[in-house]
Structure formats: C-alpha cells, structure tokens
Amino acid sequence: MRAAPRPPRPWGWPKPSFVSYVRPEEIHTNEKEVTEKEVTLHLLPGEQLLCEASTVLKCVQEDSCQRGIYGRLVCTDFKISFLGDDESALDNDETQFKNKVVGENDITLHCVDQIYGVFDEKKKTLFGQLKKYPETLIIHCKDLRVFHFCLRYTKEEEVKRIVSGIIHHTQAPKLLKRLFLFSYATAAQNNTATDRKNHAVMFDTLQDWCWELERTKGNMKYKAVSVNEGYKVCERLPAYFVVPTPLPEEDVPRFQGHGIPIWCWSCHNGCALLKMSALPKEQDDGILQIQKNFLDGIYKIIHRPPYEIVKTEDLSSNFLSLQEIQTAYSKFKQLFLIDNSTEFWDTDIKWFSLLESSSWLDIIRRCLKKAIEIIECLEAQNMNILLLEENASDLCCLVSSLVQVMMDPHCRTRFGFQSLVQKEWIMGGHCFLDRCNHLRQSDKEEVPVFLLFLDCVWQLVHQHPPAFEFTETYLTVLSDSLYIPIFSTFFFNSPHQKDTNMGRESQDTQGKPLNLLTVWDWSVQFEPKAQTLLKNPLYVEKPKLDKGQRKGTHLKVRHACLGTHFPS
C-alpha cells in the first residue's frame, strides 16, 4: 500500500563528495542559542522517559554522506523519538497531514521490525547484550520506514544507554500486562472518550447482532444466541454470535464451539456465508465416530436440498497457507526497506521483477479470485457457503470480509467497513497479539493476514474509487494503527482476553473501570482538517434497489473493481 512512484534517475548529477570535519559542538558557540532551539519531548498520559542521547545525527540515506539533522534521540516506554533542532518549522506547517499521537520522527516500540548497527562500515543485526556499540544505528520499521542515526559524536555512555535501551524495549519478549496500553488506560481515565457506537457497530451485545441480522434480512433463517455469555462455552468465540435457527443451542458446547456453523452475512437472495472451525483431530476410532455423527447432524440442519444447498470451502487445504503469506511478505517488504542510494539503484533496475518474484501480488490475486468464486456460488448458484478452517480466525476472516466488501455497499462506507472489521476480525477472534507479534514471543506466529486484507481492499479502492467512501490514505493510517498501543482494538487475541485483562473485571485501586480507546475514533489521531483526507470526495452512494435489480448491480461492481487484472 505504501508503494510510491519512483523519481527519475538524476544521471547527470555528481555524487556528493564534501565531508565536514567540524564537530557539532564546535558549530554552536552560543549555549543560550542552542538551548532555545531544543525541541520539547511531548509525553502521553502514563508515558515515561527511559533513556536519551544528545548530539545524534539523523542521517540522510546517502552513501558516504553525513548530511542530516542534529538532535536528541530518546526512548520512552511508548516510542523512540528524534527531537531535531529545526523540527519546529515542520510542526507549524498547517497543510501537513499530521498525526497527533505519533509524529514523523516517532517510532512506536511495537512498530520496530529490525535493528542494525554499522561497525567499521559493516552492517550487523543487533540483539541482546552488546560488547561493542555501533557508530550508526539503523531502524527498520513495520510501516516500511527506515531511520539512520549516527552516534559518532555522541558521548560513549549515552550511546551505551540509548542503544541498549532501544534493543531491550523493542526486541525482548514482553508480558501482556507490561504493554503501554495498560499504563495509558490507567493514566488517561479522566479523559473524555466519545461514544464508540458513533464510529462502528461493536458487536459486543446481542442487540448489535440482531441489528445486523435485520439489516441483511438474515433473521428469517438465523438467530443470535447468548449461549457463550461469560465465555462459559469457549474462550475463542465472542460472547454473542449467530447460528442457523434450527440448530439446538445445546449442541454449541459439545466440542467447545468447534464444528458449529457460525453466520457471517446474508445475501439479498437469502443465501448465507457461514464459517466453521474444524473439530480437533483425534486418533481414537470411537471419538472419530462421535465427531462424524455430530457433523452429519449439523450438515442435515444446514444442507437440505433442493431448498438449502451448502458448499464447503476448506481454506486450510485448498487455499493459501499462513507460511506462504509470511514468506511472500518478508520478500515484499525488503523492496521498501532500503538503507542507501546504492541499494536503491541496484533494486530500481529490477524492481518489478523482484516485486513479481516476491509472490505478494499473486497472493492478493488469489484472495480476490477466491472471493469472486464464493460470490458466484452465493449469487448466481443460490448456494450457502461454509468456510472451514482450523480455528476460523485467519483465512475465514480474510475471505468473508472480502466477499462482504465486494457485495455489500454498506461495507464500502467508512462506518460499515469499521463495523465489518469489528464483526469479522475483532469478534471473529483473529489473534492480533500473535499475528502482529506485539509481545515479541514468537516470530513464527507473526503473519500479516490483516495487512493482506487491507492490501486487497486497497486494490479494489484503487481500481474503482467511486464505490468506496474511504480513501487509500484511510487504509494506510489504519494499517499504521496496528502498532499504536493506546487503542485496545488490535492488541488482543480474542474478546475474552480483552475482557479478562481490561474489561469489566479490570479496575484500578479506586474502583473505576479502565478507559479504553477504540481506533475508530479518528479524532484521537487527527484534527478535523486532516480527517477530510480519509473521506473520498468521489464516493457515490448506491441507491437501494429491489431484488430484481440487485443481481446485475453486484456483478457490475465486482467486475469493475477487478478490471482485467483479476479475471473471474
């Protein structure tokens, strides 16, 4: 999503050759003048300064060049921040699209991907305790930014503190309760938060699910249930969800929610998109027979030809693997994490072939193609679709969300899209904590499934702008928000984990509930003027049509979105 047009190569430009041998402290002779130029560090509620270093040069990424800005490099329990001497002019620019929480020179600790050090012009990965400290610190960010900090003129003790502090607070495994999210929530209790319902349907009440059933006309065949209230059946499922009306509620606890068809969305013709987590694999023949009998009973409820026909899509075996997504994205992001101009021009010559060989675009194509196949079954063949996955919390979230974005105009509004993410990803139990590796406990679990979804939507927005109320900028800042730990939205593996750690059960010493921010309140990050860039001025709201007109409209929108790049 961050790919930008590359500038033409300045063939006639000579390589910069001037090197300054004047130390920065020799430049500033007037101490009073230097003090006046210092930039103040702004701390959020609950944020604490951990370590800092002065006389740090934030470098321009050029070979053998020490151009840049001098300032302080600080590390807090929330972010790494560079405070440059001449940043004030930039801050006063009213036309800039500024984030009120994270500035241009700020890196949240969760956004740090890799840290490198330069020793005698050799780049090495930094981790653990260091015996020798680098001359230059290079930080690769998960939002594809790259920072170079020259420490050559910094005091040795300060270098040790800042480098060790950054490595420890970004790379070391963490406990959930040690996240800044908790410090901020406790310290910001007196801050007034807007009503969450103004920004999205949260799907944390039975009424929210009933509203969605009513909106999609799914209430004729499906019902919202509260059998998991208090998470007494399954900690993986939300407290409330929707199942087929004929399904006995006593069947839900049989295998802790596994093997139960859970409703995602209903098409205008009455067909529905369902998902199911697979039953645990067993070796015992007796247990296998019990599971088979249970599933046979479930299928008899939802598969009743010729009235109700169900097609099962096993995403665990007939689609992508998480390993494929992880490998492709690792190759893809390297195209943007460029350290210097030499690397830039080396990759520029073969950039498109490298992009193709990463397989990331092919994975996007396969996701959109799978969504089209499901739409054909729902709309043209009048089939119910049952998505099957081990835990129904990764690829099920991805595919079901894409189907709804492509078929339901409501999901292409900002309110509808945010509600969709709440329903399919947050309440659907997508493990954001593990998939984003917020705790740094397992690199193997880090798979950018949600980012893949946003990139798929970006392709649709890019190819058919009038169909979406939000912009490409909106998708970009939403992806950036994955790593801002003042919002609880993307920092838990399940609603149960969130409620257990921060919900009604978590209170401070005075007995007040913690104040949780939702990422959907964009006023926390952006001023009203900046928020206008999140809304698409070309958006054309679709008029409500009767059933006879709807089918052609959906097909037209779908093919217009995909164009010739993703044939159906």
Task: Please characterize this protein's 3D structure.
The chain is an alpha+beta fold. It has 2 domains: 149 residues, Pleckstrin-homology domain (PH domain)/Phosphotyrosine-binding domain (PTB) (PH-domain like, Roll), CATH 2.30.29; 367 residues, no CATH class. Helices cover 35% and strands 14% of the residues. The chain is built from 19 helices and 14 strands. The strands form 3 sheets. An 8-stranded antiparallel sheet has the order 4-3-2-1-8-7-5-6, covered by helices on one side. Strand 5 and strand 6 form a beta hairpin. Helix 11 packs across helix 12, helix 12 runs antiparallel to helix 13 and helix 15 packs antiparallel against helix 16. The longest helix is centred in the middle third of the chain and has 21 residues.
What labels would you give this structure?
single chain, 14 strands, PH-domain like, sarcoplasmic reticulum, 568 residues, 19 helices, elongated, eight-stranded antiparallel β-sheet, Prot-tyrosine_phosphatase-like, Myotubularin-related protein 12, Myotubularin-like_Pase_dom, Myotubularin
Strands ordered across the widest β-sheet: 4-3-2-1-8-7-5-6
Low-confidence stretches: 2-16, 24-36, 88-95, 505-510, 555-568
Largest sheet: 8 strands, antiparallel
Let me know the average pLDDT: 86
Roughly how many Å is the radius of gyration? 26 Å
Our count of helices gives 19
Secondary structure elements and their pairing?
Layout (H helix, E strand, L loop, with lengths): L23 H4 L3 H7 L11 E11 L8 E9 L2 E6 L3 H4 L14 E3 L3 E8 L2 E4 L10 E6 L4 E5 L5 H16 L8 H8 L18 H11 L5 E4 L15 E4 L17 E5 L5 E6 L7 H18 L7 E5 L7 H13 L6 H9 L1 H7 L2 H21 L3 E6 L5 H13 L6 H13 L5 H4 L13 H15 L8 H9 L14 H8 L25 H4 L15 H16 L6
Parallel strand pairs: 12-14, 13-14
Antiparallel strand pairs: 1-2, 1-8, 2-3, 3-4, 5-6, 5-7, 7-8, 9-10, 11-12
Helix pairs in contact: 11-12, 11-15, 12-13, 12-15, 15-16
